[in-house]
Recover the amino acids of this structure.
């Protein structure tokens, strides 16, 4: 019981955190896009359009749930759930503060990498079960992308765990405590850059949002999803964004440690995560979408060799 | 070495363009907004003057209610959308004195002078729903009697409303200009409401 109760609280908190993030990020994204294009963004619902995401959510929920003809109903509806549920697990081992950690796991990093792979499965199920050729094509592209970008991400994470000698996110954070110089971004700048690029690829964010590619695939794997079927994929995408930015903060930016010794807390983690999220949004409204072969070339010809070289050099230096 | 430069060095150097891109959008993010928040705000007159709305007539400098138009039909003939309709004025019936003069001139073998039709059009209508705002009518008008209006906030609820009587509009504009300016109200009313 002493383990289950905190876990239940953590799951509920993660659900709330996930929903809240989706709302806030949708609003931020639209406002950010507006200001980059020098227009006000949403403005009519609530003060400065603050209630717009809530109303959008309500609209989305009030739509009819449709299953396409000859679609595999079970798999079709399993896919969005399978996309959404693992996100909650991903929040568990992330240390948001010295006490604010959902579940202390020795293999936290491994758990995150394992459960985040469920997204690929959800995507391929969604595309295949839709009985729609665009869906299948979109799913094939999305999976090719996710699988490809997972490899450099994994190699980068491995580099960090080589350096810290741990897969425990709390332990990795603890090793970066003290002043700003202890943050691993200074020791692994290349790994940080690779992680940032792979982060865009993993979360299907522009300029790597090839899975959706509305001009070619009319939204790809989730073409046939209406109402909250689409809503769950949408929320999961924002959930993955928050997770990956949190992990980036933990691995490279010292997690909940402040830049000066003595000031640590969840707010540092929040500031760092949201700063990274804003970089993701900023990049989305700056860069054009790349072509699919370019996307895979960036990964196989650049990120993978660089990540491997970085890992080998790190291993060599540690051994020496 | 050439291939190495092309495939390795150049892509790394090109990464700088990514930073430049972020710098540009970052700068734009911090700049003030340029879109006005309609209907709470409207565009100022300076910007409105560059707006090309529907076509309208230009009045004579001395008589603003009378168009400069000479009913030459160049606009109607050249309009690719066939959205302009012009009815010319007919020559007035000659008075008995004029008739007598004409008869006398005819008998004497002189040139008969018939009363001439006024040059200004009798009717000039314009269907905005057909217009593509190409400006051919404006370009072809020999007396520069047509221009784009600044009627930006005009809203119509039916096709019929989009059929504009250009002569009536010119008269309306002339009386608006000659009428004394209305007393300032407590709250500025958006011009959209006025136009609607």
């Amino acid at each position: 019981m002493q383990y289950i109760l905190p876990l239940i609280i953590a799951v509920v908190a993660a659900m709330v955190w996930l929903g809240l993030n989706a709302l806030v990020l949708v609003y931020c994204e639209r406002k950010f896009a507006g200001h980059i294009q020098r227009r006000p963004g949403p403005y009519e619902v609530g003060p400065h359009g603050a209630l717009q995401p809530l109303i959008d959510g309500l609209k989305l929920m009030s739509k009819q749930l449709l299953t396409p003809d000859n679609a595999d109903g079970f798999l079709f509806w399993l896919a969005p759930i399978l996309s959404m549920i693992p996100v909650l697990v991903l929040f568990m081992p992330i240390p948001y503060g010295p006490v604010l950690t959902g579940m202390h796991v020795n293999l936290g990093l491994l758990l995150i990498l394992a459960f985040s792979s469920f997204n690929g499965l959800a995507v391929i199920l969604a595309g295949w079960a839709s009985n729609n050729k665009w869906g299948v094509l979109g799913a094939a592209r999305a999976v090719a992308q996710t699988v490809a970008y997972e490899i450099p991400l994994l190699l980068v994470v491995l580099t960090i765990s080589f350096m810290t000698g741990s897969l425990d996110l709390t332990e990795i954070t603890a090793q970066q405590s003290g002043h700003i110089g202890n943050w691993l971004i200074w020791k692994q700048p290349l790994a940080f850059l690779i992680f940032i690029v792979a982060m865009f690829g993993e979360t299907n964010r522009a300029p790597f949002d090839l899975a959706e590619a509305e001009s070619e695939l009319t939204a790809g794997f989730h073409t046939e999803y209406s109402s909250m079927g689409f809503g769950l994929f949408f929320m999961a995408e924002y959930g993955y964004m928050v997770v990956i930015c949190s992990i980036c903060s933990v691995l490279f930016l010292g997690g909940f440690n402040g830049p000066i010794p003595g000031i640590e807390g969840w707010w540092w983690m929040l500031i760092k995560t949201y700063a990274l999220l804003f970089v993701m949004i900023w990049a989305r409204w700056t860069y054009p979408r790349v072509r699919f072969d370019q996307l895979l070339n960036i990964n196989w010809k650049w990120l993978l060799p660089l990540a491997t070289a970085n890992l080998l050099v790190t291993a060599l230096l540690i051994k020496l | 070495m050439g291939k190495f430069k092309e495939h390795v060095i150049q892509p790394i150097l090109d990464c700088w363009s990514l930073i430049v891109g972020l710098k540009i959008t970052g700068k734009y993010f911090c700049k003030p907004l340029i879109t006005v928040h309609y209907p709470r705000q409207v565009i100022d007159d300076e910007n409105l003057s560059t707006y090309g709305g529907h076509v309208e007539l230009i009045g004579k400098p001395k008589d603003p209610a009378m168009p400069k138009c000479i009913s030459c039909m160049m606009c109607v003939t050249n309009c690719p959308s066939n959205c302009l309709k012009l009815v010319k004025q007919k020559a007035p019936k000659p008075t008995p004195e004029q008739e007598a003069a004409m008869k006398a001139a005819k008998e004497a073998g002189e040139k008969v002078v018939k009363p001439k039709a006024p040059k200004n059009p009798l009717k000039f209508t314009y269907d905005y729903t057909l217009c593509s705002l190409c400006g051919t009518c404006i370009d072809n008008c020999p007396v520069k009697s047509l221009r784009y209006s600044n009627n930006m906030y005009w809203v119509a609820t039916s096709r019929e409303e989009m059929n504009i009587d250009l002569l009536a509009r010119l008269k309306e504009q002339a009386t608006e200009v000659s009428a004394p300016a209305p007393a300032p109200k407590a709250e500025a009313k958006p011009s959209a409401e006025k136009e609607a």
Summary: The longest strand of chain B covers residues 123-127.
